[in-house]
Design brief:
Rossmann fold; single chain; alpha/beta; 48% helix; seven-stranded parallel beta sheet; globular
Length: 261
């Protein structure tokens, strides 16, 4: 199985930490040239110190002007683009829909959905410039919230369902140009983000964080969280020759999560 990324030019949004950092590192290890962006300046600076071979931009993908500057940086640093990984996303509020402030709804949609559109619209001309034979790959990060629905987290779930529709529609549109478009639906990924979600839900339901974690694990057949590296491995597979005939798919990496809570 050929998962070499040698010569690929890759952009990973929100690539300075968590899943994005794992994806960026995995592509570098397998031969790619990688550019990342992130909204967190300290995380970007740390990444630059630790991996100076990864170029970076400070950018909020929900801002059109930031995305324009990001793609100017990508052209300068990479000279083109073969793979776009739309990883940027936020968890959004945890509350009943009638208790969610419009500003919190709008921020979640702005980052998780609008930002994906802003990046993809500028990436497509660069990917098409490769020609059909070389083609390219767009990998969007959805979530199991995009197939199960998550009560108390309607903005996040709505955005992640929309990512699946965006992915499937774009795959049809971009296929004739040799561009593959897929999305990954991570389950509960170990790390700071899921810990924050657990704490928020524990407070909502009157449980301790450890009790809430056990309730969460009971919804997963393998009764374990997935790792950022699991997601990175799938991204690499989809972007390389190993996944050259896969497009328009929503692929769940979740330990078989059966239901949302």
């Amino acid at each position: 199985m050929n998962t070499s990324a040698q010569g690929l030019r890759v952009l990973v949004t929100a690539g300075a930490a968590g899943i994005g950092r794992a994806i960026a590192q995995t592509f570098v290890v397998n031969g790619a040239r990688v550019h990342i962006c992130d909204v967190a300046k300290p995380a970007l600076e740390a990444c630059n110190r630790e991996q100076p071979d990864i170029s970076c931009s400070l950018a909020d993908v929900s801002r059109v002007d930031d995305v324009a500057r990001l793609f100017a940086d990508v052209k300068r640093e990479l000279g083109g683009l073969d793979v776009l990984v739309n990883n940027a996303g936020i968890a959004g509020p945890t509350a009943k829909v009638e208790d969610i402030e419009p500003a919190d709804w709008e921020r979640c949609i702005a980052v998780d959905l609008n930002g994906m559109f802003y990046c993809t619209r500028l990436a497509m001309p660069m990917l098409k410039a490769n020609g059909r034979e070389r083609g390219g790959s767009v990998i969007n990060l959805s979530s199991v919230a995009g197939r199960l629905g998550f009560g108390m987290r309607t903005p996040y779930a709505a955005a992640k369902w929309a990512v699946v529709g965006f992915t499937k529609s774009l795959a049809i549109e971009a296929g004739p140009d040799g561009i593959r478009v897929n999305c990954i639906q991570p389950g509960d990924v170990e790390g700071e983000r899921i810990n924050r979600v657990i704490e928020a839900k524990a407070a909502t339901f009157g449980r301790t964080p450890e009790q809430q974690k056990q309730v969460l694990l009971e919804t997963i057949s393998l009764q374990t969280f997935v790792s950022p590296q699991d997601i990175a491995n799938m991204a690499l597979f989809l972007a390389t020759d190993a996944g050259k005939h896969i497009s328009g798919q929503a692929l769940s990496i979740c330990g078989d999560k059966q239901r949302a809570i």
